[in-house]
């Protein structure tokens, strides 16, 4: 693909002169301007829309999507739902998308992106519990939406299921099936708001039913199959192993099932409920809390673009979408 440097070289002018001619600026002679434009057409030169927008108006229609750092194991299973949902709305509203990721608390990278002017708004998927960054965005009156409940003390727009309630209801369903020794496995650190909320709902359900909370029944992993195996191996080694398990990702749950087989057991011996109902959960017969990620993504994009359209500060909005327990083979009563 030809660049403006190629056009300038072929026309025998400087890059600055080529840029002025192609943007209709400067005091170039009509002959020089025509020569540059003809050369650009001959080379099939297409200006970079992003760069041009930043230079001319700082109003390029690009929204940024901030995700966890690559390597988050469960991201590939929801990534297409996220990008597909946001992309559908962005395309409809004539917006581009830019994908980036968080590297940890502190938000320097995010704030640098905002100050660069490359994006007009941000959608955060699985944001960290980063109060400092979100307050800084509020101070800048910069449009952003969380695909998660915001941290305590942060006033912003967000879209999500009620993860506290979803985990609470999942745990209660196991308690009603006779289970009192119930474990919780997170696919990532509790720094993630989603993980924190689900852990909170799990704990609340136990305490509200007079079941003691036991740290040995909680594991924090990477969301992959090996983490699921390690968690199950740990649980089975306990003097009183849990009879039911809540897995924060489909891969964790699959790892747990594989570990059961390695120990001469199967899904009839332990109840398992997972979050984020992907085709994997269905194919393995794993009971799941269905999170409509695509719907959450679409609503987040619509809300963000709506906020971008306001030049003054507007009141934040939040949208809560229902989650649903899908009962499959791994939902078994206590023995």
Automatic annotation (TrEMBL):
Can the keyword Transcription be found in this entry's annotation?
yes
Cite the GO molecular-function annotations of the record. Answer: DNA-binding transcription factor activity; transcription cis-regulatory region binding
Q: Which PROSITE patterns does this chain map to?
A: HTH_LACI_1, HTH_LACI_2
Sorted alphabetically, the keyword list is:
DNA-binding, Transcription, Transcription regulation
- Keyword DNA-binding annotated: yes
Q: Show the InterPro entries listed in the entry.
A: HTH_LacI, LacI/GalR-like_sensor, Lambda_DNA-bd_dom_sf, Peripla_BP_I
Q: Name one Pfam family in it.
A: Peripla_BP_3
- Ranges of residues in domain HTH lacI-type: 2-56
Query: Cross-referenced PANTHER family, in alphabetical order?
Result: HTH-TYPE TRANSCRIPTIONAL REGULATOR GALS (PTHR30146:SF109), LACI-RELATED TRANSCRIPTIONAL REPRESSOR (PTHR30146)
Would you tell me the protein name for this molecule? LacI family transcriptional regulator
